[in-house]
Design goal:
This protein is an alpha/beta fold and 388 residues long. It has helices at 22-33, 50-53, 71-90, 103-109, 144-150, 159-169, 195-203, 221-229, 248-257, 308-315, 326-335, 346-358, 360-372, 376-385; strands at residues 9-17, 37-44, 58-62, 97-100, 120-123, 131-132, 141-142, 153-156, 176-177, 207-212, 235-240, 261-263, 281-284, 320-323, 338-341. It contains 14 helices and 15 strands.
Length: 388
């Protein structure tokens, strides 16, 4: 039975830029704070928060990439990155842990992961059915479920996902649940790039509904914009996050259509949290079924969403509105920290905004209770050290 020693290292493998994955930053910070040595192998590592990059227990290896989009460049990039990632895997010591944080990393490391099955922690940020053998493949699949069955431990961010993943992949054990809660609540420094945005929010005459996160098809931003547009004299919608639209003109059209919408750009975590200080209500616009089959995500992925945003918003005392999905309704009703819109009619959304506004003080009192209900230190310690 494998037992981890703190003199060894936890090797975190992430295929993409780590700055797009706040939960991975939270994980690393938690591990470091609890005295674990961490090595991050990722596409982007340059803009890490100082609390991580300055730690004597932390090392990182940045795997290069290319901005070219043609097929030849993409294939060449994948080949080079695969070799680089597998070389780093080969350096893992006999007492070290391999911690993959998404199926892309698993597919890249391939069958070589089986050599580490007794100490491979496989974390799934999304509820996953299958996974394409290559980008865009519809029939050819990578056996990501087999890797899960042979992993030491599987980790997911939400309780319902744990049971669905266990049944779907025929796992022998129920996955551990590690919610996407920010680890560090200390305020990041306000940068020069942030100052004009904060000033604009301070000068805003209307109350601010804010959204932090990626802007792509499984986030139904437009339905909420339509609702807030009907009360635009009282409320404004501020959007922060990276654009994931294939055609940027679609997003430009969207922004130009609604007077209530203000797109403020993307700011690396944890800096984005500072904008919550100037918001009144926060948005969680999950769109069930929008990404069914995309990248291997389950049709239930958005239904049982596990957003880091719900903890980010709660940590800054901002009540919420969202779509009617169990991943939101359960904590909203248990702690009274927000409301789900039963449908996405403009009048329903407008009523939800006004309801949260009217019950703002009571909900703010409950947000800290929700935030404190999850002990990340305890959960991560169990994942690393629990042997039964």
């Amino acid at each position: 039975m494998f037992r981890f020693n703190k003199n060894n290292t936890i090797n975190v493998f992430l295929y993409e830029n780590v700055m797009y994955y706040p939960p991975v930053l939270n994980l690393i910070e938690c591990l470091l704070n609890n005295g674990y040595k961490v090595k991050l192998i990722s596409e982007g590592t340059k803009d890490l928060p100082a609390i991580i990059s300055d730690s004597a227990l932390f090392r990182s290896v940045e795997i290069g990439t290319t901005s070219k989009r043609d097929i030849i460049s993409r294939l060449r990039k994948r080949s080079i990155k695969t070799k680089a990632f597998q070389q780093e895997l080969a350096k893992v010591g006999s007492g070290d842990i391999v911690w993959t944080v998404n199926p892309l990393a698993v597919r890249t490391l391939g069958k070589k992961l089986f050599q580490y099955s007794d100490r491979h922690v496989m974390e799934l940020m999304e509820l996953t059915d299958t996974f394409p053998l290559y980008y865009g493949a519809k029939r050819l699949k990578y056996p990501v479920d087999e890797v899960g069955r042979r992993a030491w431990k599987v980790v997911v961010p939400e309780q319902n996902r744990a049971y669905i993943q266990k049944v779907g992949w025929n796992l022998s054990r129920t996955p551990y649940v590690l919610p996407n809660k920010p680890y560090d609540t200390a305020d990041a420094e306000i940068t020069n790039e942030m100052k004009p945005v904060i000033e604009k929010m301070k000068q805003e005459k209307r109350k601010i509904v804010i959204y932090l996160g990626v802007l792509d098809p499984d986030r139904d931003i437009e339905s909420f914009a339509k609702g807030i547009e009907t009360i635009k004299d009282e409320y404004a919608l501020y959007l922060f996050g990276p654009l994931k639209f294939n055609d940027s003109s679609d997003f430009e059209r969207f922004c130009n259509t609604y007077d209530c919408v203000n797109y403020m750009g993307f700011f690396n975590p944890p800096y984005h949290l500072r904008f919550l200080e100037h918001a009144d209500i926060a948005l969680l616009p999950y769109h069930p079924g929008a990404v069914e089959g995309v990248k291997g995500f389950s049709a239930f992925n958005a239904l049982y969403c596990a957003p880091n945003k719900i903890y980010e918003y709660a940590g800054k005392n901002v009540p919420m509105i969202g779509t009617d999905v169990p991943g939101l309704r359960t904590p909203f009703e248990k702690f009274n920290i927000g409301v789900c819109c039963r449908d996405l009619k403009p009048e329903t959304i407008a009523d939800a905004v006004r309801y949260v506004d009217a019950n703002h003080a009571e909900m703010k009192k409950n947000l800290q209770l929700f935030y404190d209900s999850t002990d990340i230190d305890k959960i991560v310690d169990q994942i690393v050290n629990e042997t039964f």
